[in-house]
Amino acid sequence: MPDSADVFSQDGYRCRLAWGWRGAREAAARGDIVVIVDVLRFSSAVATAVEFGVRVFPCEMHSDVAGLARAHGAIGAGRSSAERRDGAYSLSPRTFVDAAPGSKVVLPSLNGAMCSIRAGEAPHAFAASLLNASAVAAEVTRLREITRLGVTVVACGERWRDDNEDGALRFAVEDYIGAGAVLSRISAERSPEAAVCAAAFEGSRGDIAELLWECASGRELRAMGLGEDVIDCARVDVFDVVPVLRGGWYVPN
Q1: Other C-beta atoms within 10 Å of 185: how many?
Q2: What are the phi and psi torsion angles at 81 (to 5°)?
Q3: pTM for the full predicted model
């Protein structure tokens, strides 16, 4: 019997869709160009931060953020918007709009940061959101033409709060749409999974703001008083920035 990892690997296709921590790790091990998509809100925050001149160090949710910040001469972001103080940063993209260019921020996240860390060994790793999907796709297409590497777009997904029979990873429609926004613009032979994801974006692009507002993650953020973040993250192609992971930091490409 073939190994299940081989059966479900989308072998033979140069452009793939993957999910979560394992998807990021396996794509990096394969030597693919990796694109991390966590629309609500990690990759949207990274895109905004880098657009405004901030370098971002992704870290695990339960890391010693303050210690990492001291070690890197950076500012530690709050783990939630509730922890934010005046002049500080969080996963809210809006907290980076008035940032001082050249700032360095350590940003914890359960999904996007964890996937970024697992993609760290990839030859090229980028952060994409709806905000900068076309810019990232254009750079990935350019790199593919030079290197002939495969591409994996990783929809980070969410995590269930409790253990259950389906495991920890929870489907996140906003990440599926965000991944589709990137995949729809990459000129490479797509796996069926990637092709359907791209089609999902194309079919919903006129309703993206409403979909994010009403999806489970959007409702969760709204219940926390963060509806403005949902609105902000639903904008498409407002930035040309391409955050690339270099030496553990997201910086401009």
Answers
A1: 18
A2: -65, -25
A3: 0.93
